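Hypothesis: this fold can be encoded by more than one sequence.
Test: take the structure tokens below, design a sequence, compare later.
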């Protein structure tokens, strides 16, 4: 039992929770989500609450937190801002499952709850909350979970965002009409140093509602997003903690910020015999680092020929573990082939094919990584305008793609 809550049952892991429903509950209280974090209100915050464990968040150690009615947790002070400021921000480390103008004064609205079912878990739930001003015609239910992972290192923890129902994006004071339009909600987390942050796809757009239908898990669970914070750093900072994509029928989509273009971002999807890497928006790719220890440790680089509207063999072999630079200006897409099927990589292993990328400048990047499977032939890539306009992923043909031969024998 922790200082946050009264009698609660112990919950299982994130994977175990999937079978029982997306939201974690059974913590007592009038809704099963634990104690009320704060009374019905608009723009208010809880008192400072004790974390049952210590976290390292972007190099800062925290033992306490605040629950803010407007869909976020902060660590240094309460936050009553109702229109989400675009990340990055200064002086306010924040974890925001759905930063928006939440209003729980309506009699048919739900409320905001907090629970600590064991000494390694904190759960905050916004249950059937309305929007400003006093509106309940549309309701949102979402949850954030902090999990102690000091078994992997002091201060390490996991963040989960769980979206059961999202019907509105914006309060009236943020320019919304009937809960939509204006400046919509933002989801993600920010160091408060005006540099380091991560936003979920669709933040501050109408597409934020799609969070309830998407996921970044290797085996997607709609509405469930999970992030591992290790040594105070975001996912993507190291090969051991890569940034995981949104898994869709069209490929694996990444959306992240580049604070330092010289530092590689490590990404990882399920695996195949090759991948196309495509920047849909943002700075070009400056260099790539491919994993070591797979097959002969050599990979075939294909670059894009705009005249042929297809990838062509560059004749370059990239050695795993060594950075390959694309030259001045970088590239907005490339293809990697040469992953031996005999390597038998596990598509559920998040470190199976971790790729490091650097970029030509700072900025927000939307990147796709599209798998090329063993029994398909890659089709020509759509024109850039088509990619940027509709985010259509690459199609595939039916014949086996023949990989270029090296002096070392490779599987066909």
């Amino acid at each position: 039992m922790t200082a946050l809550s009264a009698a609660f049952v112990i919950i299982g892991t994130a994977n175990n929770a999937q079978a029982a429903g997306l939201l974690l509950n059974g913590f007592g209280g009038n809704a099963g989500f634990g104690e009320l974090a704060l009374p019905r209100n608009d723009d208010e915050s809880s008192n400072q609450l004790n974390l049952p464990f210590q976290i390292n968040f972007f190099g800062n150690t925290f033992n306490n937190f605040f629950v803010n009615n407007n869909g976020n947790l902060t660590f240094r002070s309460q936050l009553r801002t109702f229109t989400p400021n675009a990340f990055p921000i200064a002086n306010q480390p924040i974890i925001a499952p759905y930063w928006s103008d939440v209003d729980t004064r309506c009699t048919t609205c739900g409320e905001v709850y907090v629970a600590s079912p064991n000494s390694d878990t904190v759960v905050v739930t916004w249950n059937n909350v309305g929007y400003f001003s006093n509106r309940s015609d549309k309701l949102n239910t979402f949850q954030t979970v902090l999990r102690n992972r000091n078994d992997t290192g002091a201060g390490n923890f996991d963040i989960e965002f769980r979206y059961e129902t999202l019907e509105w994006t914006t309060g009236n004071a943020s320019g919304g009409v009937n809960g939509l339009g204006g400046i919509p909600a933002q989801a993600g987390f920010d160091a408060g140093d005006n540099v380091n942050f991560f936003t979920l796809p669709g933040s501050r757009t109408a597409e934020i509602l799609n969070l309830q239908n998407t996921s970044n898990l290797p085996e997607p669970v709609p509405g469930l997003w999970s992030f591992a914070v290790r040594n105070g750093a975001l996912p993507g900072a190291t090969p051991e903690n890569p940034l995981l994509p949104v898994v869709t029928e069209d490929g694996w989509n990444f959306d992240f910020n580049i604070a330092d273009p010289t530092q590689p971002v490590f990404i990882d999807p399920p695996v195949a015999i090759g991948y196309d890497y495509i920047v849909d928006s943002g700075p070009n790719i400056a260099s790539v680092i491919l994993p070591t220890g797979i097959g002969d440790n050599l990979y075939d680089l294909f670059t894009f020929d705009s005249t042929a509207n297809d990838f062509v063999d560059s004749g370059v072999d990239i050695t795993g573990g060594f950075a390959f630079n694309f030259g001045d200006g970088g590239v907005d897409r490339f293809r990697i082939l040469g992953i031996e099927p005999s390597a038998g990589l596990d598509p559920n292993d998040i470190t199976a094919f971790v790729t490091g990328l650097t970029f030509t400048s700072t900025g927000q990047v939307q990147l796709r990584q599209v798998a090329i499977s063993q029994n398909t032939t890659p089709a020509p890539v759509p024109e850039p305008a088509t990619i940027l306009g509709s985010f259509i992923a690459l199609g595939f043909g039916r014949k086996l793609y023949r990989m270029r031969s090296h002096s070392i024998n490779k599987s066909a």
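DSSP finds two helices and 24 strands in the chain. The chain has two domains: 14-234, 265-390.
Hypothesis status: open.
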